[in-house]
Amino acid sequence: MSAPVVHRPRANSPIRHVVVIYLENHSFDNILGYWCDQHQGRCPDGGMPSRVRLSDGHGVRPTVDPDTVPLVNHNVPAQLAAMNIVDGVPRMNGWQNIPSVKRARDSSCNAASGYQCISGYMPRQIPNLARLATSFAISDNTFSMGNSPSWGGHLYPVLASQDGFLGSIPQPKGAGPGWGCNSDKTTEWISPTGKKKWVPSCVPDFALNPKRYPFGGAFRATPVRWEPSILDRLDAAGLSWRIYDGGGSNHPATDGWAICPSLADCWDTSQRQDMSGFTQFDRDAAHGTLPSFSVIIPGNVDGKYSEHNNLSMTAGDNKLGQLMTSIMNSPNWSSTAVFITYDDCGCFYDQGIPRRNPDGTWQGPRSPLVIVSPYARHGYTDTTHTTFAGLLAFVEHNFGLTPLGPNDRDAYDFSNTFNYRQAPRRPVRMVIRPLPPSAKRIRITQAMLDDPT
Hints:
The two termini are 36 Å apart. A hairpin with a 5-residue loop joins strand 2 and strand 3 (59-60). The chain contains twelve helices and 18 strands. It has one domain: Alkaline Phosphatase, subunit A (3-Layer(aba) Sandwich), CATH 3.40.720.10. The strands form six sheets. It has an eight-stranded mixed beta sheet with strand order 13-12-14-1-15-16-8-17. The chain has a two-stranded antiparallel ribbon with strand order 2-3. It is 20% helix and 13% strand. By secondary structure, the chain is an alpha/beta fold.
């Protein structure tokens, strides 16, 4: 199943644990634009602009967001509309064309809505993330790997491509649980000839027992091919991993963000046992037993901490602070690198210009990325262009694993961010703030976590 592993780990790297904290739905400018204005030396390409010129000629002054994240549409058409690709170049000025969540002919980011997507958070609203950004390192040139909302976006932490999927949220909503191989749902896929088809939302594995899994783990015949994941590479190298997705190892994966259910060679094999909840992460950190690679997803019962549209930023920043405290107080802290990022734009304004991936697909809008480690350079900004494939490249280069494909093979891996010869950085103090009344009124439902279409 897995290609041979190249055992050439990065020389002199003390990193034995890589943790990806994968939050929801914000662009770089939305999270760090105002922070950049207060730390201008850290952001050579600038912070939140004083005025944004849209493709229809209107000039809009960015606003400060409320604690409850505005309900902006962020499906695939919305992200493409915002990017406004003209003559093969993303103009990043079509934000007023993002369709409404409720009615396609309306916009969820126009004058009537107060251009709510052209906005951002002040550092005081997200103090834990802001302090980590100030004390450790950021990347101001990391882009999502495609224009996809949460289903496609949650393939990126483990896959180097979308395997031909457009990335749209699987349908119909009334089918099985979650969004993946166990859901009986379909989503759009682009064939090698460029034709769009609706196929099962599953990366199949035709090496599975054909009597039990006649369609490679999909619920019906599928033209999609198997794609290797970083989980396969880690298994082949005898390295541990775990997905902490907000549920437990035996939960039914009713949350679509869980990653494993979308990969047949995870969900339908023993890899499924490597799914855990947040409580298990706290125990692993406290006992010094963090796996080599972790992905933390505030999904399932912990979805209220995800910072998703229509949820509380205070709740999310509090949870981030608690997770980072667990990591920084862990016996594993001295050998850990943490990457904090967001799965898609949300779809909030960003001025960064995406490029094409090595496999020819378009990158999506720029994402916030904060890098925390005893060996992250203090107050450093990594300005080298990369994508989420760079996170995979870091794992591969650190542990000596074979690349999954061209996107991670050619990706910049944040090597400039780390100085393994420096005196290890000490932890910083996180804070827990009272929830505002608006957050206390939010009653989390799965409908709130499904991406608006």
